[in-house]
Specification:
Layout: H1 2-14, H2 16-37, E1 40-46, E2 57-61, E3 69-70, E4 76-79, E5 85-92, E6 101-107, E7 112-114, E8 118-119
Parallel strand pairs: 1-7, 1-8
Antiparallel strand pairs: 1-4, 2-3, 2-5, 5-6
Helix pairs in contact: 1-2
Length: 121
């Protein structure tokens, strides 16, 4: 990609109008490829009675863990930029407490991996 971009930039000196379009097209393609690699996970944390668990803490772990995420008032959580693979989805009552629930999940190579509602407390 770098080599192709270098050729297009070098050609821009000789043909500025057509080469500018080529540069913009290649940059758009590079950005699209980078965005396509980022996966996202979303789901809802609930209490055993099905009520949303607002304010629960969530981590996605494999060899290492993501940052700590907090569920919204509707119990929804969103974890961004997770590579495809198998993970442990951990829920906590507070940031320093041991996990109250743990689930195995698989993140697929698609923009969003939707997890069904999970009981976390």
């Amino acid at each position: 990609m770098k080599r192709l971009l270098s050729r297009v930039v070098a050609g821009a000196i000789h043909h500025p109008k057509t080469s500018l379009l080529s540069i913009v097209t290649l940059l758009g393609l590079a950005i699209s490829i980078q965005v396509a690699e980022a996966q996202n996970v979303r789901g809802q944390a609930t209490f055993p009675n099905g009520i949303p668990a607002a304010g629960a803490f969530v981590k996605v772990c494999a060899a290492s863990c993501t940052g700590l995420f907090v569920t919204g008032p509707d119990g929804m959580y969103y974890v961004y930029a997770v590579p495809p693979g198998q993970y442990q989805l951990l829920f906590f009552v507070s940031p320093n407490s041991p996990p109250s629930a743990s689930y195995q999940i698989v993140v697929f190579p698609q923009p969003w991996t939707d997890i069904p509602p999970l009981r976390v407390f």
